Amino acid sequence: MKRLLLLTAFALTVSGCSNKIDSVIAPEVQKACLKAVDFEGCVRAFTKPKEEKATLDFLGKPILEGWHMNEVKEDNAIWYHDIYNDDQEFIAEKIKVRGEYGRYIGYTVVKRWLQEPQAGRPGSSTQFGYPTTNCYGTGVGMNCTTIPAPTLNIPGKAAIPGGVRQVSSETIIDCLDRKWTIAENKRRMGWVSLDDYLSEDIADANCHRINELKPSHFKEWEKGRLNKKDKLAIQTLPGNRTIKKR
After folding, report:
1. Residue 211 near residue 101, CB atoms below 8 Å
2. Are 43 and 54 in contact (CB under 8 A)?
3. CA-CA distance, 217 to 106, in Å (whole number)?
4. Which residues in 148-186 are b (16+ Cβ under 10 Å) and which e?
5. Which pTM was predicted?
6. How much is the pLDDT for 21?
7. Dist CA 93 CA 47 (whole Å)
């Protein structure tokens, strides 16, 4: 209730600046901004005059200047792609893999999303089955040993605080096999065909001129020795130089 009152108060303030109270904040704006870290900034991003340039995205964070922004409001997520030059042409960077350029290109992706808070769970343990008693000997010399029932330990779960999260990843394109993958925090998903993906357009615009591209900051795959496909790519892809003998 307190948050809703703040919503209404802020709406009146925004409207009052122009000496005209049109209405309270639209329901879709309320829904999108209710959980934003910078609520007022988020509302301004939605209600700004058309002639003003937005400086905050709908999550209340500064917009990455010069990046293509794809807002997925139903998922409370934003994807930023660094894939255009000043002429709005697709660009990429060449990636050194196994010691050489010539086969792989890539571009950086930044994802922002609203993380819903999740409650933690303490660890616990429970016993199942029954204890087992084994006895040896007879009469007064009998010795018995009891083994307690097995115990199952259930680990706890740490609480996850809510708020806006951001992670950067590298989209990597194999110009020879016409596939792409995503590398993030030293993890990589499986290779996927370029068909009907944004990466296909970027591959078409850049794979024929790998040597002209700027070197990528992505260094995680630099080590190793060239394989047969690497050599084939460097020798045959348009715009590549002839591979050095090793």
Report:
1. yes
2. no
3. 10
4. eeeeeeeeeeeeeeeebeeeebbbbbbbbebbbbbbeee
5. 0.60
6. 34
7. 37
